[in-house]
Amino acid sequence: MTAPPVAPGGTRPALTGLGSHLESEAVPGALPVGRNAPQRPRFGLYAEQFSGTAFTAPRAENRRAWLYRLRPSAMHGELRPLAHGGLAAPPLADGVLDPNRIRWDPLPMPAHGVDWLDGFRTLAGNGSAEAGEGVSVHLYACNQAMGPRAFVSADGEMLIVPQEGRLALMTEFGALGVAPGEIALIPRGCRMRVDAEGPARGWVLENHGALLRLPELGPIGANGLASPRDFEAPHAAFEAADVPHQLVVKFGGRLFACDLGHSPFDVVAWHGNLAPFRYDLARFNTLGTVSFDHPDPSIFTVLTSPSGAPGVANCDFVIFPPRWMVAEDTFRPPWFHRNVMSEYLGLIRGTYDAKAGGFVPGGGSLHNRMSAHGPDLASWEKATHATLAPEKLDSGLAFMFETVRPFRLTRWAAETPLRQTGYDAVWSGFAKGQV
What we know:
435 residues; mainly beta; 9-stranded antiparallel sheet; 6-stranded antiparallel sheet; 3% helix
């Protein structure tokens, strides 16, 4: 048995289907047929179940995979604390619950060599990673490969949203590349190595609650929004060389590490319905009004994590992609509103139609529960006085992490010079209505 290249090669079709039962083998015959744990797996491999839900979760909710690897993942020593000043997990003991509207400038690119893990910083969180509810929002800025070390979060699954620079991800399931305009979804507990191919920056939503899945479509019907067939899982690929690695585990917001005498990316074959996925946001089938009024932003939901209350999300991942605007006699940008949900908004590229300035690619804003927000004065005046005609809105790509709980800021997020001053002023100067 020999190891193939790390990256999936040739012209093999992608493994597609979010939540589907998939299978892949890097070496023919490595995957058992008709069973999961034979007495003696072929090639001396070790069978291991990787569970993303409780064993007794309902069949429709149950997520797990079977991995066939060169060594058991249990083959490591004691995990010892590893210092990292920028990471946390909710509940944030010294977190700041701030009712103000907040906006941040982008995280600057590092001046010296920094890998993805060292360039990782927690911005805010809610719920409890220990209780299995809520989310965390992290930022990253890096410019080099991680080298011989692997990272795994026991606190939640990770949705990676690049803003600048491509990332090469090696996971236990195989390799994925993810670039701006794409996202990567990494299951809780999946080991990965993240190599920056040049300067890279973006966001990570760490979901501590129910697994992200496609939203229900209701009256929309069977088609629309994101399609499961457009989510791509990696082909099995493994590293057989006995190269020493460091394994870094995020647990309760703290890091722990141990040394391995080999690569942890040694899975020769796998099958199941739990795997990393990549999704191209350009494949999102955007819906909108063809008559009047701006619909609720829920029609832009790519993925959702339910809270347990019907129709209420632990977190929604929402995008505002290029689209046609045709509504008649309508204020077309997002309207003024106050929301029981809390909203973190990020800009991947271009501009956002409700913000005339100050909101730049790589930057973000937070409007916590029931804070009043909406278009700034310049955007309101432009939209109010525009001559309405069909218009292609293709000036940018933005996203939103929307969650039922208020966010607590980390001390860094509350005090960093990246926090803009005077953000409230964008809603100054509106004339009094005439009655």
